[in-house]
Specification:
This protein is an alpha/beta fold and 307 residues long. It folds into two domains: 15-151, Response regulator (Rossmann fold, 3-Layer(aba) Sandwich); 164-303, Beta-Lactamase (2-Layer Sandwich). The chain is 40% helix and 21% strand. Strands 2-1-3-4-5 form a five-stranded parallel beta sheet, with helices on both faces. The longest helix has 32 residues, at 123-154. It is globular, with a radius of gyration of 21 Å.
C-alpha cells in the first residue's frame, strides 16, 4: 500500500460505523479501514448500531457501512431507522452484503442507500467508495453551510409562504404509474381540496410532463422538482421514486409524491423533500402510511418561519 491510495491521507478525524454480524468479516474490514487511518466503531446488528449512534451524542459518523442479513434488526430496518432520524439521515450509508443479485442491488439503491458493496469486497473498492462518499458528503455540508451564512448575511425574508388560516390550500397527493392507464391517483389529502381542476387531472399532467422531460428511465433520478403550475396558479414540489415490481414495465413500479400550495420557496422545498423521502420509504416497504399526518408535517413547514 502506498500513501497515494484512497483513504490514507487526512482520515484521522473521519469516523465510520461498521455493522456486521460475521465476526471474521467485521474484524477484517475494521482492520482494513484502520490501516487507511479511519476511526471505526462496530456493532453486530441494527439494534446495537442504533444504541451506538445514540451514545455518540453530538458526534455522528462520517459514513455507515452495514450488512443486510443480521439478527435482531436487519440492514433494511436499520437503514429505515437511520433515514427517519433527522440527526442521522444525512450520513452516507453503504450496504456491505453477500446479497449480490441484480434484484438485491436494485432494492438497496431504490431504498436510497448511497452505495452497495458485495462480499467479499476488494480493498481498493472499499477504499474508493468510502473516500468518495465521505468527500461528497463533506462537499454537500460545506455548500449547505455557505448557503446558511449567505441567508444570514443578506437578511433574507423568512416569512412563511403560507398563513396559518391558508393551510387548507395545501394538497398532498400520491400518484403511481400504471402501464395500461398511465398515471393513477392513489391517495390525497385533504379530501376537500381547493383547486380549480380535478386532482386526477393535475396528477396526470404533472407525471406525464416530467416523463416527457426526463424519460421513464430517469425520472426517479430527478431528486425533486420545484415548479410553478401556471394553469392552477400554484407552486408544486414533485418527488419521484420506484420500487422493484416484476409485473411493471422496466421491472419497477414508479410513483410520484407531490405537494401543491399557493407558494413554496426553495428552502421550504428542501424540508418538504425530507418528508416525502420518509413517505417513500413506507411505500417501498409496502407499509400502511397515514397521509394526513404527513400532510400536517408539510403544512407546518409552509406555515412556520425559518430559523
Amino acid at each position: 500500500m502506498t500513501l497515494n491510495e484512497p483513504g490514507l491521507k487526512e482520515n484521522l478525524k473521519n469516523l465510520i460505523l461498521l455493522v456486521e454480524d460475521d465476526n471474521d468479516i467485521l474484524l477484517l474490514t475494521k482492520k482494513t479501514l484502520e490501516i487507511a487511518k479511519y476511526d471505526v466503531v462496530t456493532a453486530k446488528n441494527g439494534i446495537d448500531a442504533l444504541k451506538i449512534l445514540d451514545s455518540l451524542e453530538d458526534k455522528v459518523p462520517d459514513l455507515i457501512i452495514s450488512d443486510i442479513l443480521m439478527p435482531g434488526m436487519d440492514g433494511y430496518e436499520f437503514f429505515k431507522a437511520v433515514s427517519e432520524n433527522p440527526k442521522w439521515n444525512q450520513i452516507p450509508f453503504v450496504f456491505l452484503t453477500a446479497l449480490s443479485t441484480p434484484e438485491d442491488v436494485r432494492l438497496g439503491k431504490l431504498l436510497g442507500v448511497d452505495d452497495y458493496l458485495s462480499k467479499p469486497v476488494k480493498r481498493e473498492d472499499l477504499y474508493a467508495i468510502v473516500s468518495g462518499r465521505i468527500a461528497r458528503s463533506k462537499k454537500i455540508q460545506s455548500v449547505n453551510k455557505k448557503v446558511k451564512e449567505m441567508i444570514q448575511s443578506f437578511n433574507i425574508d423568512i416569512t412563511p409562504s403560507i398563513l396559518e388560516d391558508e393551510k387548507d390550500l395545501i394538497t398532498l397527493l400520491f400518484v403511481a404509474w400504471h402501464d395500461y392507464i398511465g398515471p393513477e391517483l392513489k391517495a390525497y389529502h385533504p379530501k376537500k381540496y381547493k383547486l380549480p381542476m380535478k386532482l386526477s387531472n393535475i396528477g396526470t399532467q404533472l407525471f406525464q410532463a416530467t416523463v416527457s422531460m426526463y424519460g421513464h428511465e430517469h425520472i426517479t433520478k430527478s431528486e425533486g422538482i420545484l415548479l410553478n403550475i401556471e394553469n392552477i396558479q400554484r407552486n408544486g414540489y414533485l418527488f419521484f421514486d420506484a420500487y422493484p415490481d416484476e409485473t411493471s414495465r422496466g421491472g419497477e413500479k414508479q410513483y410520484m409524491l407531490a405537494v401543491i400550495a399557493p407558494k413554496i420557496n426553495y428552502f421550504e422545498s428542501l424540508q418538504i423533500r425530507e418528508v416525502l423521502k420518509k413517505i417513500s420509504i413506507e411505500v417501498k416497504k409496502k407499509q400502511e402510511w397515514e397521509i394526513s399526518s404527513y400532510w400536517e408535517e408539510i403544512a407546518n413547514i409552509l406555515t412556520t418561519p425559518a430559523i
